[in-house]
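pls design
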């Protein structure tokens, strides 16, 4: 999973350099911080360090939540940029505006709780659920507008929404003493599966969107050429009529 995630970060970086599209940059940064989060939360797998040692350390409490906040910030920026053609919708614009304003507030709240030495777990749940709300709204609007790549994008968003929601539930259950495979051993399984699904659908959606845009450009070019030809024919006809009238006058 981490290998695929890291490779996708590189892929989207290369695509951004080639196309200079901000949505690719934001998605690449989102995947980078997601990979960082999974590295931090699997220290035994990648670094041979016991997980309890890391999870109970001071630096983990300082780093883990900010990484989650930044990860979700870039995901929101990606959604806003990728769906820029539909963010003129009043509902979508308001949701993105208010959600993005919450990110710095959560950062300040995290700093305050850290200084006061108060449990910061609520910020983790809040920021994960905050990112889900715009995804649901975007999915609804995309389906409503029936864009060419709507089904693919919505499938990816649904993977992220489902994976995030189930993971939050698993972590909450683990904190309240419910113990089974997905709360103790693989608490991040569902969010990983959702992220993989999101990546696959987004890659296909990009290709679909670019193909759709290329087709639209080709149609506009043909329409422009047709309009020019019609103007030429009109000018030619008027010149012919004027020339005929002049000859008749002579």
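designed seq:
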């Amino acid at each position: 999973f981490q290998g695929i995630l890291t490779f996708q970060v590189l892929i989207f970086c290369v695509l951004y350099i080639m196309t200079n599209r901000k949505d690719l940059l934001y998605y690449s940064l989102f995947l980078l911080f997601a990979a960082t989060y999974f590295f931090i939360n699997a220290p035994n797998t990648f670094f041979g360090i016991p997980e309890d040692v890391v999870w109970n350390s001071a630096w983990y409490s300082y780093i883990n939540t900010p990484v989650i906040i930044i990860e979700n910030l870039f995901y929101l920026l990606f959604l806003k940029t990728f769906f820029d053609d539909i963010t003129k919708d009043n509902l979508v614009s308001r949701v993105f505006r208010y959600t993005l304003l919450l990110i710095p507030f959560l950062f300040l709240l995290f700093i305050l709780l850290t200084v006061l030495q108060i449990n910061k777990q609520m910020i983790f749940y809040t920021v994960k659920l905050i990112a889900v709300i715009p995804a649901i709204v975007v999915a609804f609007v995309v389906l409503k507008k029936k864009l060419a790549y709507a089904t693919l994008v919505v499938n990816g968003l649904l993977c992220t929404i489902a994976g995030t929601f189930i993971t939050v539930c698993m972590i909450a259950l683990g904190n309240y003493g419910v113990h089974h495979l997905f709360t103790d051993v693989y608490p991040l399984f569902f969010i990983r599966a959702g992220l993989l699904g999101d990546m696959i659908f987004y890659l296909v959606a990009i290709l679909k969107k670019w193909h759709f845009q290329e087709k639209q450009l080709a149609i506009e070019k043909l329409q422009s050429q047709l309009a020019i030809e019609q103007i030429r024919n009109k000018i030619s006809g008027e010149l012919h009529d004027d020339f005929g009238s002049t000859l008749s006058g002579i």
